[in-house]
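re: ur msg from earlier - yeah i can do the glutathione complex, just paste it... oh wait u already did. ok heres what im feeding in:
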Amino acid sequence: MIKIHNFPRGARGVRVMWLCEEMGLPYDVELVSFPVSDAYRAKNPLGSVPFLEDGSVAINESVAMVLYIAGKYGPTPLLPGKDDPALARVLQMTVFSEATFGGGINPLIMAKFAAPEADKQNWSVTAQEGRSQTALDFLSGTLGDAPYLAGDNFTIADICNCTALGIWQGALNKAIAENLKAYRERCAARPAYQRAQTKATGKG
Ligand SMILES: N[C@@H](CCC(=O)N[C@@H](CS)C(=O)NCC(=O)O)C(=O)O
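and the outut:
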């Protein structure tokens, strides 16, 4: 059985739960407290969440978990097949969600909530804000007027980017383009996302 270790409602763990819900896969949620225990760090030396266990598989990195689950338990329309012209775009935007967009949000959150006052808007923070804005502009331009990033079909790229947009809006509370706002609402209205949010509290 798939086991997802996560902080209560931790957004990147919900990314993985959302995929399981969309695919109808059973999974367990193991809540992790902060600071993490030595036992947890022995499993996941980074001490981050989420962390996935599935049989002999034990990995961190939420996007790797999404790709692993869609590949191992597919085929699924959420991940186009090798001959589908949408495959490259879906892989690109799935990796983008964390490598270019999501990963850059963490230092901004740390600056906002943990940096000394004098460092909250230092050179590095300002530079990262610029990079994040470039990522948002790219996401908005890639989406354009389409409902989803690969066109008409909802895919793992949408699960991953909707999650990153949620982290951006939830923690930093900054404005986003109108098409991204509508896109986030469209994706988050899916019943599978709602079920994942409930499971992520540990009570579902
Ligand atoms: N790239 C990683 C990022 C993981 C990450 O930053 N997780 C946050 C919570 S959403 C975390 O564990 N923060 C606490 C820490 O890193 O100690 C992923 O996608 O899984």
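cool cool. The beta strands are 2-6, 27-31, 51-54, 57-60. ping me if u need the other ligands too
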